[in-house]
Specification:
This protein is of the alpha+beta class. The chain has three helices and 18 strands. 24% of the residues lie in helices and 40% in strands. Strands 2-9-12-11-10-13 form a six-stranded antiparallel beta barrel. A four-stranded antiparallel beta sheet has the order 6-5-3-8.
Length: 376
């Protein structure tokens, strides 16, 4: 009986020992598995926060117009006898451009000039005779009146002949010729456009609230989509004396240098006006900021030295930030991040405080204050 009890106790001890041993083994294995499930490093891209000087600017849209521009035409009708210009040519003020047929008018002018010369000769002769009292004063007065009348008729005919000639009223560049040799032109028919292109005006409107920051002589830059890589410098030349009551905007005119004649009247332009001194901001790509209703956050990367294997330890740290104005792909950081700190720009969704990270900057998000479209 005692022998059976001993055997039962031994067997019970063996079973209990196996159970406890299995539990210890299971706990050890679970601990190892949990250890292996620790946060693995998350791959992110980063950038170093840099400070930049940002200008306070006002952007507006406007139209390019010439300082002087006119569609030239003849004041009187006639047949085109001569053309003295080529389309697109540069001309000076006073250069002849077109001559209408005027042979009959010139012949009449010569006759009137001859009559005026005769009347002048008669007046001068009778004036000498008057000194010797050979003729009366009345005759001399009549001679003078005849001379002035003849000269006036000659001047009138000279003006008519001048109307048959079209000259450049100012220096500039001609457009495309719209008439042909031998063509009959009614009075006022457009011949060619003439535009003074350097300098050139850019007219644009700004809200009345912006008037306090705009003054004559203020520097401006203009851009047109025809030349996306060119910036044209100029200055405010005039401010309109009234506000448009319908839109509450004010017309501003800027004078812009155009030595290469790249800007043409009628072009659409965007204008940037520097309204205040540049301000220095820490800037980041906009992708670095997670915008939330409870506050905007960014993830910084802290260097924790090296681990037992000599590998660098990088850990993410969440930081609340205050953002400012944006320019293109960039955003200004007013508070929360200092210049020189390393900031995560992509991969934030995988992060929380203390998450180890692995940095891979092979691909970086856009970070351009003045992005331009890329042709594909």
């Amino acid at each position: 009986m005692i022998k059976r009890m001993v055997i039962m106790l031994v067997l019970t001890g063996i079973v209990l020992g196996g159970v406890f041993g299995f539990q210890l083994f299971k706990a050890s294995m679970i601990e190892k598995v949990m250890a292996s499930l620790a946060n693995p490093p998350q791959t992110v891209s980063t950038t170093v926060a840099a400070a930049q000087d940002w200008r306070s600017t006002l952007e507006a849209v406007g139209s390019v117009r010439a300082v002087n521009g006119a569609n030239l035409s003849a004041e009187v009708p006639g047949i085109v006898a001569a053309l003295h210009f080529e389309s697109g040519a540069d001309v000076k003020a006073g250069d002849p451009l077109l001559q209408l047929e005027a042979s009959e008018d010139i012949a009449h002018l010569n006759a009137l000039k001859a009559t005026a010369d005769l009347q002048r000769t008669v007046y001068e002769r009778d004036n000498r005779l008057l000194k010797t009292q050979a003729i009366p004063q009345q005759q001399v007065d009549t001679d003078k009146a005849n001379m002035l009348s003849a000269q006036s008729l000659a001047d009138q005919q000279q003006a008519l002949v001048d109307y048959k000639s079209v000259k450049a009223p100012f220096a500039g560049r001609l457009g495309v010729r719209q008439v042909d040799l031998g063509q009959y032109l009614p009075a006022g028919t457009p011949i060619v456009t003439l535009q003074q292109l350097d300098p050139i005006y850019v007219d644009f409107y700004v809200p009345q609230q912006a008037l306090a920051s705009i003054r004559k002589g203020q520097p401006v830059t203009a851009k047109v989509d025809t030349f996306p890589d060119r910036i044209f410098d100029g200055e405010v030349s005039s401010i309109n004396a009234q506000v448009d009551t319908a839109t509450r905007t004010v017309l501003i005119r800027a004078s812009v240098a155009n030595k290469d004649f790249l800007l043409l009247p009628g072009m659409f332009a965007t204008v940037d006006i520097e309204t205040a001194a540049p301000q220095r901001h820490v800037t980041l790509p906009q992708t670095a900021i997670a915008y939330n209703s409870y506050g905007d956050i960014a993830y910084l990367v802290d260097d924790k030295g090296k681990d037992d294997k000599g590998q660098p330890q990088m850990v993410a740290r969440q930081a609340f930030v205050t953002t400012g104005p944006t320019r293109g792909d960039q955003v200004a950081i007013l508070d929360g991040i200092k210049e020189g700190e390393t900031v995560v720009t992509a991969g934030q969704l995988k992060l929380r405080n203390g998450t180890p990270v692995r940095i891979d900057n092979t691909v970086q998000p856009a970070n351009d204050a003045n992005p331009k479209p890329v042709d594909k």
